[in-house]
Specification:
By secondary structure, the chain is of the alpha/beta class. It has helices at residues 10-17, 29-35, 39-49, 64-75, 89-100, 113-121, 131-136, 141-155, 169-178, 187-193, 197-220; strands at 2-6, 22-26, 54-58, 81-86, 105-110, 126-129, 160-163, 182-185. An 8-stranded parallel barrel has the order 1-2-3-4-5-6-7-8, surrounded by 8 helices. Helix 9 (169-178) links the parallel strand 7 (160-163) and strand 8 (182-185). The structure holds erythose-4-phosphate.
Length: 221
C-alpha cells in the first residue's frame, strides 16, 4: 500500500519526503485555502517536491465542460499530476472525457460502494472513499472500504482504491488489511505511524547502556 500525505503544506511534505516513504500527495480546495497564497505556485512546488510520486490536484468548476477544461490545465502542470473530479454527474462526464484523453483521474468525495462502481466504470485511475467522514455520520467507513476492495477484486476493476479521510494510525493499518492500494493521511497521522512508546523506552536504554560502556572503557584505558 502506497502512503500519501493529505496536505498542501510544503514544509510538511518536505519533512515526510525525507523519510523515503512518501509516494504521493493529495490536495483539495480546503487544504489549499488553509495555506493561502498563490494556488498554482503551491501546486507546482508540490509536484516538483514529490516528482517521484503522484500529486492529486482538484478541479473546482462544477459544470462538466468547464471542469474538463480545468482538468486539462491541471494535468499540464506536471507529468505526476492526477486530476481530481467529484462524484457528481458532471464529475463523471468530465472525468470520462479526461480518461479518454489519457489523463489519470482521481474520483473524490466517494462515500458508497455504488459510487465506487461508477468511478471504476469511467476508467478512473483512483477512487477516493472518505472513511473518516463516513464514520462521522455514525456509519462504518472501514466496512465501505472493504466492500469497495472486494467489488473491485471480483469485477477485475483496475481503478486503485485510495483510502482517504483517515483520522488515526489504525485507519491506516485496517486500510492495508482491507487491500487498499493507497492511504492518504494528514501530517499528524503520518507522524504517529512512526511512534511507539517501547521504541522510545528501548532507545533510551540502549543510549544509557552505550554511554556507560564508553565511560567504563575510558576509565579502564
Ligand atoms: C482526500 O483526497 C481528501 O483530501 C481528504 O482525505 C479529506 O479528508 P478530511 O475528511 O479529513 O477532510
Amino acid at each position: 500500500m502506497r502512503l500519501f500525505l493529505d496536505t498542501a503544506n510544503i514544509e510538511e511534505i518536505r519533512e515526510i519526503n525525507r523519510w523515503g516513504v512518501l509516494q504521493g500527495v493529495t490536495t483539495n480546495p480546503s487544504l489549499l485555502a488553509r495555506e493561502m497564497g498563490d494556488v498554482e505556485k503551491a501546486w507546482r512546488l508540490i509536484l516538483e517536491e514529490v516528482s517521484q510520486g503522484e500529486v492529486s490536484l482538484e478541479t473546482t468548476e462544477p459544470e462538466a465542460e468547464a471542469m474538463y477544461q480545468q482538468g486539462k490545465h491541471l494535468a499540464s502542470l506536471g507529468e505526476n499530476a492526477i486530476v481530481k473530479v467529484p462524484m457528481t454527474p458532471d464529475g463523471l462526464m468530465a472525468g470520462k472525457r479526461l480518461t479518454e484523453d489519457g489523463i489519470r483521474i482521481n474520483v473524490t468525495l466517494v462515500f458508497s460502494p455504488a459510487q465506487a462502481i461508477l468511478a471504476a466504470e469511467i476508467g478512473a485511475y483512483i477512487v477516493s472513499p472518505f472513511l473518516g467522514r463516513i464514520d462521522d455520520g455514525a456509519a462504518d467507513g472501514m466496512h465501505a472500504l472493504r466492500q469497495i476492495c472486494d467489488i473491485y477484486d471480483v469485477q477485475g476493476y483496475e481503478t486503485q482504491v485510495l483510502a482517504a479521510s483517515l483520522r488515526h494510525p489504525m485507519h491506516v493499518v485496517e486500510s492495508a488489511l482491507a487491500g487498499a492500494d493507497i492511504a492518504t493521511m494528514p501530517y499528524d497521522v503520518f507522524t504517529k505511524l512512526v511512534k511507539h512508546p517501547l521504541t522510545d523506552k528501548g532507545l533510551a536504554q540502549f543510549e544509557a547502556d552505550w554511554e556507560k560502556l564508553q565511560k567504563e572503557l575510558k576509565e579502564g584505558a
